[in-house]
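Box S1 | Example of a co-folding query
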Amino acid sequence: MLEQLAHIGRDPKTGGYVRDAWSAADLELREWFAGEAGRRGLALREDPNGNLWAWWGTPSPERPGVVTGSHLDSVRQGGAYDGPLGVVSAFAALDLLRERGVTPSVPVGVACFSDEEGARFGVPCVGSRLLTGVLPPERALALTDDDGDTLADVLKRAGREPGGLGRDDGTLAAVGTFVELHVEQGRGLVGEGRSVGVAGAIWPHGRWRFDFHGRADHAGTTRLADRDDPMLPLARMVLAAREAAERRGVVATVGKVRVSPGNANAIPGEVAAWLDARGADEEAVRALVAELSEGAQVREESWTPVVTFDPALRDRIARAAGGDTPAPILPTGAGHDAGILAAAGVPSAMLFVRNPTGVSHSPGEHAERADCEAGVVALADVLEELCR
Ligand code: GLV
Ligand code: MN
Ligand code: MN
Ligand code: MN
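Box S1 (continued) | Returned holo structure for manganese (II) ion
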C-alpha cells in the first residue's frame, strides 16, 4: 500500500513529499482511502470536518468502536511514513484480524484525519481539533494559506460544504477507543533494540507568528544609519530563541520565514516568522515565548497542552503489542491527532515503529519493511485485545 502511494505528491528532485491539505495530492490520497475502504466492504464516511472513516460494523453511541488510523497529508518536503504508515497499517491490521478469523464484539474503524500537519494554514490537527471543538469553526474558516486563500475558499473549491465545520458529538460518540500507529520521530527504539514502542506522553507545544515591520528601500543607496530593516530584529529573535531554549531546557525552531517583497537588492519592508516551541515543562515553554515576545508583535497560532496517555490503556497496549516483554514506553515532542482526541476525553494510545535514522519531517525519514510488518502485527494484536 505504501508503494501505491509513493508517487503521490512526490517531488522528483528531492524525493520529498508535498501533500498540503486539500491540494490535488491530498484529494488523490483521499480517493485512495475510499478505494481501500470499498475493496474491503467497509462503510466509508467523510465527516463534516473532512475526516475520513471506514467502518467494519456499524458504531452507535451504545456500541462505540475501536478506531485506528492517522493522516495522509505531509509537511512540505516530508517523508513517506509520517501519517501514511498509520493509515496503511490500520487497513493491514484489519486484514490480519479477518485472516485470523476474529469476530470483533464492537465495530472496528479506520480513520484518516484531515490536515494534521498544518503545513498550509498554520494550525496543526485541524480535522481533529474541529471534531473535538477545540478549534472554533469561524477561526478555522478564516485561516489563510500562502496565496491568501481562506480554508473556506479551499473547501468550496474541493466541493466541500464549509458550513458544517465544528464540534461533532455524533462522530465522536462512535469512537470508543483510538489507537494511532506512527513512525518514530527519534531514535528511542533504536536505543531499546525494539521494533515497536508505545507513547507515554506528548510534550506541550505551540506555534507563534512574529511580525516585524520596517521600510523597504534600495540596498545600494540607503545609508546604514537611515535604514529601518526588519531582518535585524528577526535575526536577533532567532538567536535569542536558541539561547533561551538551551537555558530553559526546551526546543525552539524558526522553520518558516516570509520576507516581503523579497528582493535581493532591496531592504525588506515586512518579515513574518513562525516560532515552534516545545518541551517537557510547559512553564519553561511559556516562559521562553514570553521572553521572546517582549516588545514584538506576536500572535499565538496554536497551543497544545501536555498529553499524558491513560496509563492503564497504555500498559495494556504495551503488553498486547510487546509479545514476551512489554513494548517500551516513550515520550515524544511531536503532535498527533491521538493527543487531541485524548485531551477531549477519548481513551487513546499510540504505537511507534522504529526509524533507523530518527529523521522525520524530511525525505530522510525511514522505516525498514520488517519493522513496518512488526508494527502491523502489534497493531492487530492490540485491536484484537481491545475488541474482544
Ligand atoms: C506534527 O508532526 C508535529 O509538528 O508535531
Ligand atoms: Mn508530522
Ligand atoms: Mn504525523
Ligand atoms: Mn534599478
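The mean pLDDT is 97. The first strand starts at residue 43 and ends at 46.
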